[in-house]
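Progress note, project year one: complex with adenosine-5'-diphosphate.
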Amino acid sequence: MIDGSPLAADTAEEEFPAAEVVSTEPPRIHRLDESVVNRIAAGEVIQRPISAVKELVENSLDADSTSISVVVKEGGLKLIQVSDDGHGIRLEDLPILCERHTTSKLSKYEDLFSLNSMGFRGEALASMTYVGHVTVTTITKGQLHGYRVSYRDGVMEHKPKACAAVKGTQIMVENLFYNMIARRKTLQNSADDYAKIVDLLSRFAIHHKNVSFSCRKNGAVRADVHSVAASSRLDTIRSVYGVSVAKNLMEVEISCSDASGCVFEMEGYVSNLNYIAKKTTLVLFINDRLVECSSLKRAIEIVYAATLPKASKPFVYMSIKLPYEHVDINIHPTKKEVSLLNQEVIIEKIQSEIESKLRNTNDSRTFQEQKAELIQSTLIATPSDLPVSPLPSGQKLQKVPVQKKMVRIDSSDPAGRLHAYLQPMSQSQSEKVSRLNVVRSSVRQRRNPKETADLSSVQQLIAEIDSSCHSGLLDIVKNSTYVGMADDIFALVQYNTHLYLANVVNLSKELMYQQTIRRFAHFNGIQLSDPAPLSELILLALKEEDLDPGNDEEDDLKKKIAEMNTELLKEKSEMLEEYFGINIDSDGNLSRIPIVLDQYTPDMDRVPEFVLCLGNDVNWEEEKDCFQGVAAAIGNFYALHPPLLPNPSGDGIQFYTKKKNNGSSQENPNSGGDVEMEEILEDNLLSDAENAWAQREWSIQHVLFPSMRLFLKPPTSMASNGTFVKVASLEKLYKIFERC
Ligand code: ADP
Ligand code: MG
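Model obtained:
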């Protein structure tokens, strides 16, 4: 239309009023009418009829009711009526009952951290009055009669009227979404809202076993949920979910308070081998709040898939209790999703409890174990030329590391030393394997329940980590944003208006050390596909250090050192296994290393150095020194060092091209095959290098930084040893830009 094309101008004028076409002024901003704001907010809290039912039932529970009954008409769109026998609402509170942000459950901010009611925002009732017609009938203790009053848009429509009432409160919501036509239309077509409400009430019923629940359609004689207060939990499950569920359940229980500060209790019921279902049912309450947790659900499904021969999905009822300050309930307006401190540890413990229960009650045990082994070996043995696997949410594609293709013999070649023994796994493969190992080795731990983490030297090491923590750096670690890698060692991070360079090697070393100490004696393992002989690993490491290779005397000496160290480590194997999850078999092969951070596998090229360091650098005489030494060796091994192959995306590319040129410039006709061979090797080397660097960068962004935010306590020394370097203040940069 700007270029005057008649077609464009015509269509524009047809669709828009002339003023808008000609005017170049931006649209005016105006304040939304308060009732519109409230209706939008209400639409978020009450998304479907089921959200209204949940809020109303939670209010009844908060009012100490012992009996709650729900009546629903047309899936809740026509009527939702919740009646309870709770403490009722005072007459003088009725005028503000349905105003936004009026609540009896919270008076100051700090109360949020010791809250044991389900509600606290004072938004639910208010929201309902903006999207439906709400009528409240209530009576408080000692009164002769009750009151009834209706609300619209947060306010009473009339003065409360005296009326006859039975103990408690009845809240009626009629014509839900009467003023939100689009939403009403989409909901009208959905027949399953009532089914969802029944499911919700079933869940409440089995958790709150001292409250009797009923739920029925308006006019129906029979209730679709009917539970009786004060029966046992299993009885409630039977009456709500049926005999076929209840008879196939096993009780599970955990009470945990370990040295790392992970405190929680869990009790519940999980289905056994005989239970058959296509869909998982997870009824989860955290601190008595009905919530969803997809990572826990997935974790439990994995246990069932790995343990049971039949592909049945589990039924799980689980109640988890945590210190209130460990749960953040404030993250979602409907309080449905919660975030927990120590979530990954909690999930691992739950997995292992369920797995051990399943195995103990499982008759065909050998069969299952075989199956689990099978899963593992197929995962490990997956060929290297797997297709590139896409990662979720637009992350960079990660190439599957090249494996087992060759054993490198060129000593100037710094990589691939272990390809003969170890096959590094792709992120997703190793994740699956580690999950299975999580299951397996935690069962092993449970079979030998020694309260090893109480050893006072470990407590001391934890206390040292805590006491040397630098509060300023801690704030930076917790609240900074990862920008990208500035070079091979330093990452650029933004903290408020400042840019810092952060040394990822130092930081990851410290993080891995601290995690090793925290997980002391509670490690899950990464199984090596082929056990690696310690003596050869040590020899490799010694050769790597050697400045004068080929000296026979020195070689003998190296062999001696390797033998002695192997013997030493074999002697210490029981301790290494029990406390650090490092498995050395009786033939002196390294066969398992610990998982220090979930979803992270260390660079296997560093195993020789690690083993040498265990043998040489650890003081095995003093308990505390010894633990610290082993943890430091693990920390150094697992740290995110730059890969040994030079970075091909920088100057390092010369390393690959130079070699290639040398190879092809030899114009010896007889060596044509060799040249070709060499070229293939160089190409492989280059793609190995690309993989290794890409994987490291991925781990830095997606594993290291998120984990540091959760776990790292940066020691004071990091403030002065160059781990953090401030490079710029954005305010100053902005000022400079302004002047430009
Ligand atoms: P919240 O539950 O977040 O406090 P609501 O809007 O759900 O906010 O409820 C507002 C207040 O109304 C509650 O704090 C409570 O004092 C009162 N209330 C609501 N429902 C009931 C009920 N069934 N019995 C007694 N009091 C109730
Ligand atoms: Mg509420």
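The first strand starts at residue 67 and ends at 73.
Residues 1-21, 363-453, 663-669 have pLDDT under 50 and may be disordered.
No further modelling is planned for this target in the current period.
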